[in-house]
Amino acid sequence: MIRVLGIETSCDETGAAVVEEGRRILSNEVASQIAVHAEFGGVVPEIASRQHIVCISQLVNKALEDAGCTAGDIDAIAVTNGPGLMGSLLVGVCFGKSLAYAWHKPFVPVHHIEGHIFSVFLADNPPAFPFLTLVVSGGHTSLIWCERPHSYRLLGATRDDAVGESFDKVARLLELPYPGGPSIQREAEKGNPAACDFPRAMTQTETLDFSFSGLKTAVLYRLREGGVSREDIAASFQAAAVDTLLLKTRQAIEQTGASRLVLAGGVAANKLLRARLACELGIPVSMPPFELCVDNGAMIAAAGYSRFKHGFLGNTWTRPHPGLPLV
Ligand code: KG4
Ligand code: ZN
Questions:
Q1: Distance from residue 226's CA to the centre of ligand 2 (Å)
Q2: So what's the pLDDT on residue 98?
């Protein structure tokens, strides 16, 4: 039984988890910084890295304790080394490397998005490779062909804002609390999705790229015009964003002949997106459970287990990379 300690500190959540065989979560501790950043309306990088420093040691201890493990029970230490905020990544990478050095364990760097993709292996009925993945987070919106573990082909990506970023920016325009995704979702439940006709960008073209900055600008202009409720704007914005993701994913399925879709990233927690993907695509969709959609250590441990098995190890020279590409 291989047990991996997974550590995640790429943005504003500190995560530490122990996962067995890349599938079974023995513990999964997440310290959210939402309350700390809420008063600024978004993540303040310097504060984020300081918060990671404050809690990482206790969090890792708690994860080990919950799992009933000591250092001797851990086979590898997996840590997110990018992409993300440099200061935040540095905390996790330095902590993980130090632990690996002290415990004489392999150190496994993990790409944050690969972690999100591997979160579906922690759910029932994990997908078999190859599959198509729709990654939707605060920093990424991509369609990725996953041929086999750690072999990926980028089919399309956003040319400007990520979809999660657009939820966050529109929430700020609507004066809804940070983080924007859950706030918009709550507000949208009370509104009419057909109230405003917002653009579905790039949906008339063959490319599998996305663009979300025009949608945010359209919301700004509609707000300035006035005469429409906040709930209706939220509902119409969410409908446009989800429609765009669905249209592009359908195109990707047609172009690749994919027989399974994986949904991954923070926006995978969106109820409308989950419901529509599940019933409108005609192929099975693997989604992480709600609690594994946001950043966490378990997904890093799951991806780290596979990297460890395939021999993709790091060493003392491994550094964090804020712009680390997956492909
Ligand atoms: O994956 P994640 O935790 O961090 C990054 O890797 O970026 O994703 C965070 C993003 C934020 O933009 C947040 O607003 C969005 O996920 N999000 C949602 C929902 N929950 C979180 N967006 C839409 N609907 C949600 N329910
Ligand atoms: Zn993430």
A1: 34
A2: 97
